[in-house]
Amino acid sequence: MGKVTGIAGRFGARYGMSLRRKWKEIMEKRYADHVCPYCKTEGKVVRIAAGIWYCKKCKTKWAGLAYTPY
Ligand SMILES: [Zn+2]
């Protein structure tokens, strides 16, 4: 029984590590410069709320995904 628990524990640790890597990817994507789909300006798109994006250049506001503008 002790051996089984050990294997399950190791698998759990590995799964947790891949989850953390996935989370890091999401966070990096979230803070990366996005290109405005309307005026194509890069770095002027900001997330003003969950799923709400705003372009400081052309002042367009639109609904996108929670972590990416489209
Ligand atoms: Zn724009």
Low-confidence stretches: none
Number of alpha- plus pi-helical segments: 1
**Overall pLDDT confidence:** 79
Summarize the helix and strand pattern as letters. HEEE
* CATH class membership of the largest domain: Mainly Beta
How many strands, which pairing sense, and closed or not: the largest β-sheet? 3 strands, antiparallel
Strand order, sheet with most strands:
1-2-3
Choose one word for the global shape: elongated
Beta-sheet strand percentage?
15-25%
The helix-and-strand class reads alpha+beta
The N- and C-terminal alpha carbons lie at a distance of 49 Å
Oligomer: single chain
Rg over CA atoms, rounded to whole Å, is 19 Å
Q: From the 3D coordinates, which CATH architecture of the largest domain would you assign?
A: Single Sheet
Bound compounds: zinc ion
| Count of the domains | 2
Residue share in helices? Answer: 40-55%
Stated plainly, the CATH topology of the largest domain is called: N-terminal domain of TfIIb
Number of strands: 3
